[in-house]
Amino acid sequence: MAKTLDQVRYKCALGGIQTVQSIEGALPILHAGPGCSDKLSTGYGTSGHFAPRIFPCSNLSEKEVVFGGEERLKELIENSLRIIDADLYVVLTGCSSEIVGDDAGEVTSRFRASGKPVIQASGAGFKGSNYMGYEWVLESIINQYLDEIEPAPEKGLVNVFASLPQHDPYWHGNYDALETLLAKIGLKANIIFGYGRGVKNVNRIPHAEFNLVVSPWLGMETAKLLEERFETPYLHYPNLPIGAYETSAFLREVGNFAELDTDKINAVIEENERRYYYFIERFADLFLENRIMSKRFTVASETQYTLGITKFLVNDLGLFPQKQFAMENVPGKYRSDVKSQFKELRFGIEADISFETDGYLVHEAIRRSDYLGYPLIIGSAWEKKIAKETSAHFLPISWPLNERLIINSSYVGYEGGLKLLEDIYSVVLTRFN
């Protein structure tokens, strides 16, 4: 009997539409049923180049399921090219079109043969999640759109792959923060997602000196493909750098990989750490007060936040991790490496990480835990009920997130660590006022 999952934290692979929408100048064209397109349209948070709920869709019906939908797709692409001025058209195929066997790749190749920037990516939900859809969109861009570009490496140019666009509420702020950090040590980030970037930066991907993946696992397939296609080396930094300890380590590792001036990097780190600890010391009494919050915490989120926040709360704040949860169905081949990261904490502390997709089981584990006081629970809107039940301090940060508006905030970097402390202790202080 099939297992029923409760409170799932990811979407189907057709969620790759959000990856496309986050690239200015790129237009998604869905070859799927009307229900799929409607449910995946968030209504906000796209790149702004095209309306989030207005994009071409073949709206497959019973007729196309029986007789095939390739002609309908061909007509849809022709009309899209005629009335919508985009720099890149990305056809995403859903479950119904792939089950029927429509050869969308062959249809799009006809348009490319005539010089039109039309590519195809799989988005069938039975194949994987929106995390896979993200990788498949990037794979299609590399193999079908950038395939004829001759790489000309530009010194200091770095392709950056980090947060899952739109699904991660902090995606834009994270990319901005990483761009700022890299600029501090003399590197120029080439980011394709968000404001002022888009297809013009996509065209620069083959010319980067190296690729930087800032994530426990997402983006690794893209980096490996770029290495294969353009011989571009990559650096994998396995977690978001949050706070002073991890951000300084991040800058040193990137600087060493890029063979930058060590003295310059140390000067940047010293300046930023001095400012960071100035603010930490101002509120040290609050952070050291045991009565208002237990020293134990749980994060139930996608791995980049579960790992990044765990390292921050242990390494910078001296808290102790209870069981932690990676919620996005991490591929099996990456789980061993992810587990090892939770053992690389300061003070000899290790965290127990569980790869879980069922929110019910997460909440059961939280109920069984003894936090020795008011616990801190960081997760999504799904954790609100269990936080209330356990008298926890609760901070929602990941999808689904329906009680906070995140415009361009980030927890990345020195400033990001201070922002996270602000958010946590703003919640803590409400209990005593």
Give structural notes.
It is a single chain. The protein is α/β, with parallel strands linked by helices. It folds into 3 domains: 13-145, Rossmann fold (3-Layer(aba) Sandwich), CATH 3.40.50; 154-274, Rossmann fold; 280-430, Nitrogenase molybdenum iron protein domain (Rossmann fold). Helices cover 44% and strands 15% of the residues. The protein has 18 helices and 13 strands. Strands 8, 9, 10, 11, 12 and 13 form a 6-stranded parallel beta sheet that branches. It has a 4-stranded parallel beta sheet with strand order 5-4-6-7, with helices on both faces. Strand 10 (324-326), helix 15 and strand 11 (353-355) form a beta-alpha-beta unit. The mean pLDDT is 93.
Provide a quick synopsis of the model.
The chain is of the alpha/beta class and 433 residues long. The chain has helices spanning 16-21, 34-40, 62-67, 70-83, 95-100, 104-113, 130-145, 171-184, 199-202, 220-230, 243-257, 262-282, 284-287, 303-315, 332-341, 359-367, 384-389, 413-430; strands spanning 26-31, 88-93, 118-122, 154-161, 188-190, 208-214, 234-237, 296-301, 320-321, 324-326, 353-355, 376-380, 393-398.
Q: How is the secondary structure organized here?
A:
Elements: H1 16-21, E1 26-31, H2 34-40, H3 62-67, H4 70-83, E2 88-93, H5 95-100, H6 104-113, E3 118-122, H7 130-145, E4 154-161, H8 171-184, E5 188-190, H9 199-202, E6 208-214, H10 220-230, E7 234-237, H11 243-257, H12 262-282, H13 284-287, E8 296-301, H14 303-315, E9 320-321, E10 324-326, H15 332-341, E11 353-355, H16 359-367, E12 376-380, H17 384-389, E13 393-398, H18 413-430
Parallel strand pairs: 1-2, 2-3, 4-5, 4-6, 6-7, 8-9, 8-10, 8-12, 10-11, 12-13
Helix pairs in contact: 7-10, 11-12, 11-18
